[in-house]
Design goal:
This protein starts with a helix and ends with a helix. By secondary structure, it is mainly α. The strands form 4 sheets. It has a two-stranded antiparallel sheet. Strands 3-4 form a two-stranded antiparallel ribbon. Strands 5-6 form a two-stranded antiparallel ribbon. Strand 5 and strand 6 form a beta hairpin. The chain has helices at 2-24, 50-61, 80-89, 101-107, 117-133, 141-157, 167-183, 192-208, 211-218, 229-253, 263-273, 284-315, 317-330, 346-358, 387-394, 413-422, 434-441, and strands at residues 64-69, 72-77, 96-97, 368-369, 374-376, 379-381, 397-402, 405-410. This is unspecific monooxygenase.
Length: 443
């Protein structure tokens, strides 16, 4: 009976909070489907085909609309014109990154993909500059790709013309190119440590893109209490990051500041240059998180694009014939293709661009956040939703009373970093979640 009372009170509070949050945004945000309390539009969205659901909503509400993922309002820009207007005309204001509860737990605000503010700008600028620098030197990125392409061709020759699913081979090739750029290391496709790494990486990507993870990210408070595949995502991420950290330690022992070999060396040199700057964004946590983002994102996107390219070339054999004729004419059969050939291969270049346009590689793109309140197409998209508004009024550290229980909220990167880095031991405990505690005891 006591458990039932606690459960009813808890759900009632969540219900009232959800209704208040949805109503407080009406009249400001773009229109959208009616959201249910707590779960939002979750029942109206096909998480297995998210882009199809967005297309349906855009046909009803137009190219700018609002959906509720759980209790969180999300403004969707649908179609080329709306996205172009936002990113070209208001690029700076749409440059923020949205939070992902799972990835925040993994990278803790470091890295590139879901980092925000000055840290994101610094890491992005450094990564782009370093990758450009690595394109010119003793062992360029182009040479890494050429060498791995030869290995890939040899693996495909072993199939001897029989039917096969090349997915794993393409993933190995893409992973090896990223390994060369980041670690100065290439693996044999049968290397056991490499196979384990690929297994963890594939499982991580598969679960991360699943409907279950969409639900988990909408209700982050439940992540630490519910069993499920989201725990596997975190475990696999820890394995991959541990692997990366071991490579970083190996590089520290053999570092030559006058002859950087790969991305890790460049970053280690930058850490040393910035060691006397207390505001520096360059540290080992940031290095591992950045490598992790480059490694996971670069491997999956490249291998998926290659797989789709093969499927499309099989579907349109007349295009394949023309591409082959142009390759034979410009490159021939006795040397490896290089980037300089591109200017002489307009048809092949056009086919590659059309493949990238046609495939549904990342239908929704990375979720963004506006950096300040903005009026877009006569709708107000606020920077702040609820806790952000409270932080604006009361500062980065404030207290909320959830019933009779005071809860201290730390808002923003600097406040959270100071708490977890400078006072990690004191903040190591877990808060109480009475409803979940009672439910878990009953299992």
């Amino acid at each position: 009976m006591e458990l039932l009372v606690v459960l009813v009170i808890g759900l009632s509070c969540l219900l009232l909070l959800s209704v208040w949050r949805q109503n407080s945004g009406r009249g400001k945000l773009p229109p959208g489907p009616t959201a249910l309390p707590i779960i939002g539009n979750s029942l109206q969205i096909d998480f297995k085909n998210f882009s199809k659901s967005l297309t349906k909503f855009s046909n009803i509400y137009g190219p700018v609309f609002t959906i509720y993922l759980g209790m969180n309002p999300t403004v969707v820009l649908y179609g080329y014109e709306a996205v172009k207007e936002a990113l070209i005309n208001f690029g700076e204001k749409f440059s923020g990154r949205s939070n992902s509860a799972t990835l925040e737990k993994i990278n803790k605000g470091f890295g590139i993909v879901f980092c925000n503010g000055e840290s994101w700008k610094e890491m992005r600028s450094f990564s782009l500059m370093t990758l450009r620098n690595m394109g010119i030197g003793k062992r360029s990125i182009e040479e890494c790709v050429q060498e791995e392409a030869c290995c890939l061709v040899e693996e495909l020759r072993k199939i001897n013309g029989s039917s096969c699913d090349p997915t794993f081979i393409l993933e190995c090739a893409s992973c090896n190119v990223m390994s060369s750029i980041i670690f100065q290391n290439q693996f044999d496709y049968k290397d056991q440590s490499f196979l384990t790494l690929m297994e963890k990486l594939n499982e991580f990507i598969m679960i991360l893109s699943s409907p279950w993870m969409q639900i988990c990210n909408n209700f982050p408070a439940l992540l630490d209490y519910l069993p499920g595949s989201h725990n596997t995502v975190v475990k696999n991420a820890i394995y991959i990051k541990s692997y990366i950290f071991e490579k970083v330690k190996e590089h520290q022992e053999s570092l030559d500041v006058d002859n950087p070999r790969d991305f890790i060396d460049y970053f280690l040199i930058k850490i040393d240059e910035e060691k006397h700057n207390p505001q520096s964004k360059y540290n080992y946590e940031s290095l591992v998180a950045t490598l992790y983002d480059l490694f996971t994102a670069g491997t999956h996107t490249t291998s998926t694009t290659l797989r789709y390219a093969l499927l499309l070339l099989m579907k349109y054999p007349h295009v394949t014939v023309k591409v082959k004729e142009e390759i034979d004419c410009v490159v021939g059969r006795h040397r490896i293709p290089c980037m300089q050939d591109r200017r002489n291969m307009p048809y092949t270049d056009a086919v590659l661009h059309e493949i990238q346009r046609h495939i549904d590689l990342c239908p929704t793109g990375l979720p963004r956040a506006v950096t300040s309140d903005i009026k877009f197409r006569n709708y107000l998209i606020p920077k702040s939703f609820y806790h952000e508004m409270l932080a604006k009024d009361y500062g980065p550290v404030f207290t909320l009373y959830l019933g009779m229980k005071p809860t201290v909220v730390l808002y923003g990167y600097e406040a959270v970093k100071e708490a977890l880095i400078d006072h990690g031991e004191e903040f190591a405990g877990r808060g109480n979640f009475p409803v979940m505690d009672k439910l878990m005891k009953g299992l």
